[in-house]
Amino acid sequence: MADSSSIMEESNDVTLNFGEEDEIDRRKRLKHPVAVFFHLFFRIASLLTYLFCSWFSNSEITSFIIIIVLLSMDFWTVKNITGRLLVGLRWWNYVDDEGKSQWVFESRKGSNQTKISADEARIFWLALIITEMIWIVFMFIRMFSFSIVWFMTIIVGILMNGANIFGYVRCKYGSQQKMTSVASSFFTTQFFKSMFSSAASTKGNESKPGGSKVGAL
Fold first, then answer.
1. Which of 162, 160, 154, 161 lies closest to 64, judged by CA?
2. DSSP H/E element including 121
3. DSSP run (H or E) holding 138
4. Which residues contact 163 (CB under 8 A, 6 or more apart)?
């Protein structure tokens, strides 16, 4: 129980933010080439199989099974290997002594960040986000057809890849409250910038001759 509580406490400390990977170890472009390869291989293979499986097989069920296997292998690889090696993040869950499922979100901190390559981190996040966008585009295209099997395949792809995106974003930002505070801080900053720029623009117009009737009076 002591070990479990300490793990849960560590999951709340998140120090690795988006964009900070650019400042970490530029000397070696790819420190884990095998992990990068498999991070891309299974997701690309599942997309290509979805697009071109009809060229090799007329069975939708066979194609469905192959794609689901590739998606499952990609999900497991990203969740358990490439996230830890490429960006220093890990998310997982366990069942405590009371039978409740506990979710843990961890990030690499301190001197261990030097093990992260900026190029690997960029590949990691771009692969996750672009793949999710492609599956969403496929979903909208399939909405105009009546193939339940293919639509289910796309939904599985969206859910599996989306689960990894959500898990790793939580690893970066910590709890839901921290994510909300980050978003609120961003929009607050943008609001004040807009307000100050509008005030400066109005003041500039008033200083011009004939720029305002009030000024003429």
1. 154
2. helix 118-142
3. helix 118-142
4. 75
The DSSP symbol for 193 reads H
What is the arithmetic mean of pLDDT over 3-7?
Answer: 44
* pTM of the full structure: 0.65
Q: 140: part of which helix (H) or strand (E)? A: helix 118-142
What gap in Å lies between CA 82 and CA 84, rounded to an integer?
5
How long, in residues, is the chain?
217
Q: Supply the DSSP string of 169-211, one letter for each residue.
A: HHHHH-SHHHHHHHHHHHHHHHHHHHHHHHHHHHHHHHHSTTS
Mean pLDDT (whole number) for 134-157? 90
CA 182, CA 35: separation in Å to the nearest integer? 31
Model pLDDT, residue 27: 52
All residues at 6 or more sequence positions from 83 whose CB lies less than 8 Å from its CB, including other chains: 89, 90, 91, 124, 164, 168, 171
Structure tokens at 131: 């793949």
Three-class SS of residue 191? helix
